[in-house]
Design brief:
CATH class: Mainly Beta
Number of domains: 1
Order of helices and strands: HEEEEEHHEEE
Largest sheet: 5 strands, antiparallel
CATH topology: Ganglioside M2 Activator Protein, Chain: A
CATH architecture: Distorted Sandwich
Strand content: 35-45%
Number of helices: 3
Number of strands: 8
Distance between the termini: 39 Å
Shape: globular
Oligomer: single chain
């Protein structure tokens, strides 16, 4: 990667992170999940009193190469369907172990305060949980206008939506973002 491209990417990330708007709030509305029994014995995600709770039992360790595809979608007023506004694929193990800040890493770090997640890969077989997590006001960005959102989060191994793609877990979370 050229130095100029690297500098532009770093500048874009800085501007993205600098656009945090502190007075925003996120209300969790609903959640849904599906999981691959090859990787999980159990996985549940629930919303109660605007807090997220998760319980999972890993059947296999989570190892390097574990990736996530985020798709943040917005439903415009009077629209029936959601439209994608932001989509990104990240290597989960690399993103949690790196020292650089990112939106994904800030969410993950905050979630670990409410559960027993492993912070580094490999994550061993066992029971993991997160209780009473609320998305803080500093975890939203200005580019997201107030409205109704759906986050689709797909965890997988391989290359996204190719022959090597192996889905492990899919989460769908509906929220309302307000000022």
């Amino acid at each position: 990667m050229s130095r100029q491209l690297m500098w532009i990417l770093q500048l874009m990330e800085f501007l993205f992170l600098a656009s945090v708007e502190a007075e925003r709030s996120v209300e969790f509305l609903a959640s849904n999940c599906t999981y691959n029994e090859k990787y999980f014995r159990n996985f549940s995600l629930t919303i109660s009193k605007n807090m997220m709770n998760m319980e999972m039992d890993l059947s296999r360790p989570i190892v390097r190469g574990f990736k996530v595809h985020f798709d943040i979608q917005l439903r415009l007023a009077n629209a029936k369907n959601f439209q994608s506004v932001f989509s990104q694929v990240n290597d989960v193990c690399a993103a949690t172990s790196t020292v650089k800040n990112s939106l994904f890493k800030s969410w993950f770090k905050d979630m670990t305060k409410h559960g027993n997640f492993m912070y580094n890969c490999p994550v061993q077989v066992g029971h993991y949980y997160m209780h009473n997590w609320r998305m803080g006001s500093t975890m939203t960005h200005r580019f997201l206008i107030p409205g109704e959102y759906r986050g689709k989060v797909e965890f997988f191994y391989g290359k996204y939506k190719t022959k090597t793609y192996e889905e492990t877990l899919t989460l769908i979370i509906d929220t309302i973002l307000s000022n």
